[in-house]
Amino acid sequence: MSKLFSPLNLGNVTLPxxxxxxxxxxxxxxxxxxxxxxxxxxxxxxxxxxxxLVIEAAGVVxxxxxxxxxxxxxxDANEEALARVMKFVRSVSPIVTxxxxxxxxxKASSHRPWNGRGPLKPNEGAWQCDAPxxxxxxxxWPTPHALTHEEMARAKQxxxxxxxxxxxxxxxxxxxxSTHGYLFSEFxxxxxxxxxxxxxxxxxxxxxxxxxxxxxxxDVWPADKFMGAKISGSDFAEGGWTPDDAxxxxxxxxKAGAAFVTVSGGGVVLDAxxxxxxxxxxxxxxRVKQETGITTGAVGLITDPHQAEEILSSGKAxxxxxxxxxxxxxxxxQHAAVTLGVDGDSMPYAPQYDRxxxxxxxxxxxxxxxxx
Length: 372
Description:
Elements: E1 8-10, E2 13-15, E3 19-21, H1 36-46, E4 52-59, H2 76-92, E5 96-102, E6 130-131, E7 145-146, H3 149-169, E8 173-178, H4 183-188, H5 203-220, E9 226-232, H6 243-255, E10 260-264, H7 282-292, E11 295-298, H8 305-313, E12 319-322, H9 324-328, H10 332-339, H11 365-371
Parallel strand pairs: 3-4, 3-12, 4-5, 5-8, 6-7, 8-9, 9-10, 10-11, 11-12
Antiparallel strand pairs: 1-2
Helix pairs in contact: 1-2, 3-5, 5-6, 6-7
């Protein structure tokens, strides 16, 4: 039996396998609204063989987008565009689908990756960024505005409103973005949070606002649907967020009603020393899973089916979250089933693609194609 292709319970949903699609920013929206590109991209990911799909980070306010081309969920037009995309996804696949809700904080108002990634200039449509403290991301970045209590209250309501929009669209779950140096991550990390009020200083204080917002979202999200969060395992920088902090935060999220966490990391500072390599984030997921018992997803250059199988079968995580591997090979799930010798009936194909199923290939020929 393959652990990768075994079922997993999340909330009241049973996933048929443990392959999930990570949220991948496409930088292809117009005023926060999804376009035809998102229909193509998410339709493609829905046919990947994965059991769960997380739609890319959606800003809960316009100024919470990373770039002007990022998705948002703050307007009726955004909601209608998302509903249009979801109608198509539902028509081609039964994949369990949710959205990552986010606020980019001091990393907002920036260029798309293929346009340089740096901050927008005033003549390029730059806007004022918000953060827990008026601390620059780096020397070439503008100083963000430190949120007041009143502004934090309004921001919390924006998260709640986006949650209600997601519910109206009929999404299956929500993932709250708490890593990669965006707003919640900035509150959590001592490198970016220099507040002296009840939202700064100790770990309990730094967690306070993200947890308040999560609970407010959970209160308006349908009781029969699940929520989770993407969290940091480390800032990869001296004096920053640590794996010990990740365990505490995951435990508090679990108490607040989170059904899962996916453990990633980095992004709070640009000079972090990240030891990138196959599975480099997996040890963080392993600690969180073992010490909190919450259902935990692993990320970080997981590309090979045998690698994914080992992570799960050894108990390091409960599911894997793929991004770049699926961009390179949108049929990763079907190919993984062949590689691991899983019965073809365990990995159903869209009927239009069923002739590509390995059961219809001559013996040995499919593996030859995959290894070419």
